[in-house]
Amino acid sequence: MRRLSLALLALPLLVLAAEKSGPEPGVSLMLGIKPFNHDGDRYCVTCKTAPNPLVVAFVTHNDEATQKLLTAAEKAFKDGEEKHLNVAIVLPGAGEEIDALKQWILDQKLTAPAAIVPADNKTLQTWHLNPKVANTVVFLKEHKVVRTAVELKLDDLAENLKSIVG
């Protein structure tokens, strides 16, 4: 009984420890980007890809885990062509970390559109991103959010992709 009481007391701490970031399921959002790794004009990534499945990876940290996640997202983008899977990489904000991520994406020659979007961009603010987290990955289908994953691990990407591509 005493162990159960201690476990129940610890539950609120676990809930508080999980950072929240990203939109709720069912929401329809827009996001304009100008990819730095593609020629062309600025466009609405969520509009252009609808009704096809879309993964938008918002990343803020240039670490090994992020690089592996982006490499896997790139592979999913290439492998998912017949299912019309789209992937976009968004680097919200500015600074050394964002500059390093941009350079890494260019060095790796990732083909998924990647863009830097200022943190104070009004459209970006509607996505409810938490700047404290390394990544927020949003899975959309038919222009609506299906799920949002915070601090998505490489091993969980495939399972989350199933929610939009089957």
Secondary-structure element sequence?
A: HEEHEHEHEHEEH
- Which stretches of 5+ consecutive residues score pLDDT under 50? 1-16
Which CATH first-tier class would you pick? Alpha Beta
Spatial ordering of strands, largest sheet:
5-4-3-6-7
User: What does the main sheet amount to?
Assistant: 5 strands, mixed
Helix content: 25-40%
User: Gap between N and C termini, in Å?
Assistant: 44 Å
Count all strands and give the number. Answer: 7
- Binned strand content: 15-25%
Radius of gyration: 17 Å
Total helices: the number is: 6
Instruction: State the CATH superfamily name.
Output: Glutaredoxin
Shape: globular
CATH topology: Glutaredoxin
What number of domains?
A: 1
Overall CATH architecture: 3-Layer(aba) Sandwich
In short:
The protein is of the alpha/beta class and 166 residues long. It has a single domain, classed as Glutaredoxin (3-Layer(aba) Sandwich). It has six helices and seven strands.
Question: Key terms for this structure?
Answer:
alpha/beta; Glutaredoxin; 5-stranded mixed beta sheet; 40% helix; disordered N terminus
